[in-house]
């Protein structure tokens, strides 16, 4: 199957520090891929390169056949790529519906006031459909700032989904969530259309291994191993560098 994201020989240098050292990565349409690794491994840098938030020092980034190496992040939604951020981006003083509405409007280049025209009203209805897809139908009129932590994360997903992505980059989606909320998040991500490609960085191994079909392990700016969750779990090298212990 054709790759939706192709990373070739990507290096990122921050002054003298090489955060990425010649990384190659192909992501297939519909694939669920998790990137794991110890602190400072280069996961966030790789993610930022794919999202267009950092231009690589050398190497190329191709998304759906288009060379995006030097294109800034604002072009990514047009190529079907959306990302979430670790830090919440929803407006706390707006409702769930309004936040999703603004994500829809922003994606379509409409930055006007809320609900002025019939087209805007249709977008309000569409916002309700998007909320439904992230299990927030019951919270449409609640303020984002009053949502529980897990619901707020669902709203972040909704705002990414509003751009109708083919590829979603999820930056530590489970961070800060309670056990119950993490469980719900896994179930929600599993409920997404299986044509949607998901790339996530995740520190919670349980979440990463349950969602991913393939896990890429990074250390010191390089990919040290890639495999199924079972393969990665059993790899003694991964235990050494990542978990600091030998496989049992
Ligand atoms: N803007 C920057 N300027 C300088 N150095 C940076 C910058 N961003 C990252 N680094 C460095 O690059 C290396 C890789 O960082 P990166 O954040 O990509 O790792 P990570 O695997 O995401 O780590 P963590 O799990 O702690 O988030 C680290 O040594 C980090 O200190």
UniProtKB/TrEMBL annotation:
Gene Ontology molecular-function annotations: ATP binding; ATP hydrolysis activity; L-isoleucine transmembrane transporter activity; L-phenylalanine transmembrane transporter activity; L-valine transmembrane transporter activity
PROSITE patterns cross-referenced by the UniProt entry: ABC_TRANSPORTER_2
Keyword NADP attributed: no
UniProt GO cellular component terms: plasma membrane
GO biological process terms held by the UniProt record: D-alanine transmembrane transport; L-alanine transport; L-isoleucine import across plasma membrane; L-valine import across plasma membrane
Family annotation (Gene3D superfamilies): P-loop containing nucleotide triphosphate hydrolases
Domain ABC transporter residue range list: 5-245
Source organism (scientific name): Jiangella anatolica
Record bears the keyword Aminoacyl-tRNA synthetase: no
Signal peptide: none
SMART domains: AAA
Keyword annotations of the record: ATP-binding, Nucleotide-binding, Transport
Entry protein name: ABC transporter ATP-binding protein
CDD domains assigned: ABC_Mj1267_LivG_branched (cd03219)
